[in-house]
Amino acid sequence: MTQDLVAATGFGTIPVHAQQMVATLMMMMLRSVLQRWRVLILTLLVCSGRSGALVAAESRVADALSLAADFRYRAESVDLSGAAEDALASTLRSRLTLTGKPATGWSWVVEVDDVRVIGAERYNSTGNGQTHYPIVADPEGTDLNRAALAWHHTDVSLRAGRQRIVHGSERFVGGVAWRQNEQTYDGLRGQWQLSETASLDMSYVGAVRRIFGPDDGAQPASWDGDSLFLRAVWQPTDDIELRPFAYRLDVNADADFGPALTVDNSTDTVGIEADWSVGPLTLRGAYARQWEHGDSTLDYAANYSLAQGIYRFGAVQVEIAREVLGSDSNTGFRTPLATLHKFQGWADVFLTTPADGIEDTSLAFQGSVEDLTWRVVGHRFEADRGDAGYGHEFDLDVSWQMNERLSFQFRFAVFDADSAAARQYRDVRKAWFIARLALP
User: Fold this and answer.
1) Does some domain include residue 26?
2) Whole-angstrom Cα distance, residue 82 to residue 361?
3) Which of 29, 239, 358, 395 fits 71 for a cystine, CB–CB 3.0-4.6 Å?
4) What percent of the chain has pLDDT over 90?
5) Domain span holding position 355
6) pTM of the model as a whole
7) Among 322, 252, 246, which residue's Cα sits nearest to residue 290?
8) pLDDT per residue over 101-148, tens digit each?
9) What confidence tens digit (pLDDT) does each residue in 360-383 have?
10) Is the Cα dihedral 420, 425, 430, 434 positive or negative?
11) Dihedral sign from CA coordinates of 190, 62, 177, 318
């Protein structure tokens, strides 16, 4: 069986001991998904059975239907200063995606995710009660990740149901796909290509299916409400791109959770992002203004800004950036729908903006060597209001795309808190090993 897997994934040319290690990992992934989803898989196999009278009809269905599987194993360790024990989360996310195209212009998708602990449960998932460990927000469970119907015609597309909504860099609206349980949205989305240089993206969202699901834990698994997202892209010239946006996030009250975890995340945010490219240099800027909305108990108006320079030479890219999430009335600018792991350091120290805001000054280098990609980032964190320093961080990532089906990733982050900020933030070391198999 393992030899068949070696051949199927195309890594028969690497050393034998590496083949055995990878094949064993793949067998573990496949065994887990077969055990958890045997009923669904058997149903799909039965439905795909042939009969002489249905060969032509089956051929048409086969052309319209597509089944894909994706397995992601991750080991995440957390060494948090002052914690009773270090955390080690060994989890496997198994995903089945069924898509169809029943008619011209129409398509649908149904996607199910299953997250399971492999080995001992030595981490706080926010829902397993293991609070003596640091948090790794990957709770176990089986979840309907997507279920949506889409229609596309010329320059217009509409999508209804549970779906991904990802805007740009994901600073304001993202999928948080870094975590094992992805963030998806229940709603209606329309996208229009207005011209060759302009497009419009509008969404109504009735519920945000958060990474803490499928069941409530220390955090709500979902936020219900009536949220609106509006984003446009306009290229007045070949070298300039402007992206104005407006987000109204409305979160309903929940009797099981206080305002800080529900209604206080209701916000109105308006702003603009801009890129200007000059040869190998790209200058990127952004500004936004935010205030409370709906039933929020807060009363504030805070600013956001970004200034970034990106320079490419050969296979190497250098980035210098200063990102500021401001503060007003002891409340920091917030982006609760962002893929927060991408910003302000991979140690995830600042998932909630400090009351005095935060300034993140960073220097990054990234590049590639054949099938390997790497990225190194240094951060310096300070308060936006006042002169307090929060700390500094070093991040490292190395990824290997062995072939189109199999990839590996190692990531490391270390955050050192300033002595003056020690009461608010603690030193933390995090490391990740990830193996991912996509089929077919």
Assistant:
1) no
2) 27
3) 29
4) 83
5) 73-439
6) 0.87
7) 246
8) 999 999 999 999 999 999 999 999 999 999 999 999 999 999 999 999
9) 999 999 999 999 999 999 999 999
10) negative
11) negative
Q: How distant is the alpha carbon of residue 234 from its chain centre?
A: 25
Q: Which residue type is seen at 136? A: V
- Is 41 among the domain residues? no
Is residue 242 situated within a structural domain? Answer: yes
Q: Is residue 29 one of the residues assigned to a domain? A: no
The neighbour count for residue 178, using CB atoms within 10 Å, is 20
| pLDDT band, very low/low/confident/very high, at 44 (cuts 50, 70, 90) | very low
* 61-88 tens-digit pLDDT: 556 899 999 999 999 999 999 999 999 9
268-281: burial string, b at 16+ Cβ within 10 Å, e else: bbebebbbeeeeee
> What total number of domains does the chain contain?
1
Cβ 226 vs Cβ 202: under 8 Å: no
CA distance 294 to 251: 8
| CATH number for the domain harbouring residue 349 | 2.40.160.10
